[in-house]
Amino acid sequence: MNNLLLNISCQDDKLKENTLKELSKVCSQCKACDLSKTRTSVVFADGNPNAKIMLIGEAPGADEDASGKPFVGRAGQLLNTFLIEAGIDRNKDIYICNTVKCRPPQNRVPSNEEKQACRAYLIGQISIIKPKIILLCGATAANSFIEEDFKISQIRGKWLNIFENIDTMAIFHPSYLLRNHSLEQGSPRWLMKRDLENVKARLSVL
Ligand code: URA
Ligand code: SF4
Predict the structure, then answer these.
(1) How many angstroms separate the alpha carbon of residue 173 from the centre of ligand 1?
(2) In order of start, what are the domains of the chain with their CATH numbers?
């Protein structure tokens, strides 16, 4: 199904911009799941719609719900640090969004029903943006596209063949890295640094 939807083509930048705006507008009024009852804002996306990288996180937290922008809280700030270190410009090189667009109460993991309800927006974003690289940030995002059971620590850092013509990699979620401070060789932060260096290297040849 993913590849079928990804074949929808946008002929020019204006059409792309308008299609994205339209999707964002529909999403901003969405009541397809119960998260609509507790949210302050729908957090659709941030960054450059023409970027080669699309990063998909889990769900908005409190800061994102308040501001309407993804990855602006503590986890987002740590992510920014890693991106800067790898030479990836968050505003220029990345379009950033989440698996579900509304904050789950107490930041719980979104349910399968909520993920399913929100999926059309995510698939729509991928279809319109047409990234060359997708980063599945954390287990929730990776779960949405990988059916087999997996541990994020086992699949992260590998180029996965999920979408036609899009190099896809799962990476650690920065919230996990907030709880793991070690920089030692083989530690989660060390691996995240290496993964993003690989992404940067791939980006440079695209
Ligand atoms: N965590 C996420 O997965 N997404 C955000 O936008 C913020 C924190
Ligand atoms: Fe709609 Fe997604 Fe928000 Fe649920 S989480 S109300 S499906 S936008």
Answers:
(1) 9
(2) 13-203 (3.40.470.10)
